[in-house]
Amino acid sequence: MGARAGALLLALLLARGALGKPGELRAPLPGWGRAGGTGVAGSRWGPCGHRDIHPLVVGGVETVRGRWPWQVSLRFEKSHRCGGSLLSRRWVLSAAHCFRTNYDPSKWSAQLGELTSKPSVWSVRAHANQHRVRDIIVNSRYKEVLFNDIALLELATSVTYTKYIQPICVLSSTFMFQHRPDCWVTGWGSLRENETSLPPPYNLREGQVTILNNTRCNDLLEHPADHSTIQNSMFCAGVKNGSIDACRGDSGGPLVCDKDGLWYLVGVVSWGRGCGRPDQPGVYTNVSQYFTWIQMMMSCTTPRPDPSGLLLLLTLLWSP
Fold it and tell me: Where does the record place the Peptidase S1 domain (predicted)?
């Protein structure tokens, strides 16, 4: 009896420790934006930034399944709401403003490995690659004006990597990508400023954009409505005539660039003055500014056992 009681106490202590501390979640304030691995390079989370499906097209057009294997569809009550980027088997990076009114993790899920944002309810593959969200960690410095517009989502179950599902890399500095004209933004957002959603077949789209320095960005976005000056925690990207841009529904999605054969997450879709306007580039959260925060959040969260496994353990301990 004593040994069994001791084992039970140990199991309960492990379960309690596994719950960890509540995430630093702040109820997002009203604002405006584009809502509708960690494969941290060289870290203990393992390889990242690889893909097997190579470039086929250029511009704001439909892509192919597996070309952007880190792309995540974040779904609120089963409907696509925002984009995200897979960092590891348990973590997704997105924008804080996506959760400004809906931050109950039990209502969110993450869909991976699909080309369409509306896979068939009969798709066994899509069901297998949909994961519940365990926790939403909004950066504690997130403000209504979309400063520090970044959030991490911890998944309830581990992701299985495939040809179509891979983590993206993150760097502590991305200055080398400034002025690069060959970076890419992807998402399931609307195609025009006055539209509210992507038309059928709801397939992921991609666009090639140039990253601007903040001096040029501030010149273009002079007196941006409801926003302060573009700071180091942000950057702008787009094309001069506005023909390629993120829009509503793309929020939280990735802007990525490649370097020496690996792909890196440089920006998170945050906000913009309309969509697709000439000389009005989109504004992105500068991921490198949050490199330490990302590592800290992912490292400090204690892994939690599957509740069904814990229940089985307790049953075995009390069995004759």
Answer: 57-299
